[in-house]
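Hi there,

I know you've been waiting on this one. I reran it after we fixed the sequence typo, so this is the corrected version. Both the input and the resulting structure follow.
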Amino acid sequence: MQATQNQLSKYFPLEAIDELMGLPSFGNLRLVIHRTRRSKLGDFRPGVNDTPTRITVNGNLNVYAFLIVFLHEYAHWEVFSKFGKRAAPHGVEWKQTFGHWLRKFTLAGCFHPTLTDAIMDYSKRVKASGIGSSTLQRLLQMFDPIIKNDDGQKYLEDIPMNALFVAANGKLYRKEALLRKRFRCQCIVSKRHYLFHPLATVALSNTNPTD
């Protein structure tokens, strides 16, 4: 990866740069900063012939979330390098590898102290999707740009039940009930129900819920 410390520090915590540059084959990876994607935060594509291995990460993430997603994808590369297609994409090998790098970077002081306990806990039971446990996600949001109240943006968990809101896809929904860890919401136009993450960013609608 041909990048200077100054270039890397735009996306990674400054404390993590030396650790990153010390990763095996880090210099041979191609890191692509991607525009915001709703479907995923990052991905990994192994190199073919003379094409270098590529890791993409969404560029709108704060530096700590960016590092976690990068390590998630880097773990895919390491597992693929050792086992090829014999290892499941998010199988035992990947979980162990991802957890290892999370702990190593945490113990090296690459994350803000307020994140340490949550990351260490998450490293023991990592998941295939998202950035971490609900606890870790809430802590990570402390480092996101502040949501301005004057534009109606809120987290779904903070708006009242039965309230109408506009989701990121521009459609109008009604917040109905909490089912385990997600909220069931009804699309006003189609009348279909969908599950939303509690930390989804939504805009409150001025429409009366009884309309």
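Quick highlight: The CA atoms of residues 157 and 198 lie 5 Å apart.

Best,
R. S.
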